[in-house]
């Protein structure tokens, strides 16, 4: 029953002093109100005869707004007067257009649409939780209610990464065009793809002399090379426990995803094949470079539901997957953390196998708070101890970088805001030097 039944009973109770037998009067009033409530409930439209479905957006970028509409069709012979509540998980940021408590009226055979605006707070899949329909009688003294799976059509909104690093793409594409020679200032690197022949100049490497062409022209000619095209790039996302560490306002995994998207967009424009592997103790997602026009969209959709796992990363598994999938020499970009424990026990033992076949780049983010602690003037008794801990952490990161460098690994260590452009610059530098 609703509050109206209680109010009706309270109004009748106010007349009890006028009755010769107040107890009997109270019993009669209670029975009458209960009978009216039972009749009112029987006259309410049965929620079980409602057809409920949804339509609307399936994907939205983090920070954007999507609209998902709930459609109710009254298949009963009675008019529906109902309160409808469409619940989503809290991180979906649901805001229904219909104010809470407002009644929805649907005639027999009629349909009503109730839109809900969603502004998600986190990346990933955000499912609809439950739909609750509370159907009232004509007097609104009682209601019928239905909720749960029968009344809740399944719907999942996939929240895609924000891709803030897109703003760095035009500048990097301009540099890529210079490297590829599509502008007047054509860059020539020490690549392996033949470009042109030209006359020998003092200082040229004698190993680049083309003796056959020189014999035909009766002049000394040298070969020039251009950076490689149509190369292979493998992005590996470490989704283990270190990816859950927050760098500013977001986890390290989100920062690495943003950097991987910028690198993928740049490499796809360069005509390179891009593969992606996300793994920790198991492989979470894989994307191959087939179908390059839709590569970035497929990669964004694949990494959207990734979440950090609270376990150690199995770098042996990652190395096995890379070596099994990539037979040709590739540029391997590993997005992880420069933590001595994780890399020393996991990555360094398998690194020689990877470096022997592929060109390896380790991309990691560091917390700028460490640098701040080492440079700030102490103002509290505990500040020198915090600075000592920061110096020790930075020294350990330096030892890890040196260990990786001994295996020929390029290390990109930047802040969360600078990781994406730093990785893109490293890719362009390797491409210009012909070291992919």
The share of residues in extended strands comes to 25-35%
Helicity level, as a percent range? 25-40%
The tally of helices reads 11
Q: Per CATH, what is the topology of the largest domain?
A: Rossmann fold
Give the distance, in angstroms, between the N- and C-terminal Cα atoms: 73 Å
- The tally of structural domains comes to 4
Summarize the main sheet.
Answer: 6 strands, mixed
**Shape descriptor:** elongated
| Low-pLDDT ranges | 182-190
Output the CATH class name of the largest domain.
Answer: Alpha Beta
The CATH architecture assignment of the largest domain turns out to be 3-Layer(aba) Sandwich
- Averaged pLDDT, please? 85
Number of strands: 20
Structural class: alpha/beta
Q: Going by CATH, what is the homologous superfamily of the largest domain?
A: von Willebrand factor, type A domain
Rg over C-alpha atoms, rounded to the nearest angstrom: 33 Å
Write the SSE topology.
Layout: H1 3-13, H2 22-43, E1 50-56, E2 59-61, E3 66-74, E4 80-88, E5 94-96, E6 104-106, E7 111-118, E8 124-136, E9 143-147, E10 156-160, H3 169-180, E11 193-199, H4 211-217, E12 221-226, E13 232-238, E14 246-247, E15 250-251, H5 252-269, E16 273-279, E17 283-287, H6 295-303, H7 315-325, E18 331-335, H8 340-357, E19 359-365, H9 368-375, H10 383-406, E20 410-414, H11 419-433
Parallel strand pairs: 2-10, 13-16, 13-18, 18-19, 19-20
Antiparallel strand pairs: 1-3, 3-7, 4-6, 4-8, 5-7, 8-9, 8-10, 11-12, 14-15, 16-17
Helix pairs in contact: 1-2, 3-5, 3-11, 5-6, 5-11, 7-8, 8-10, 9-10
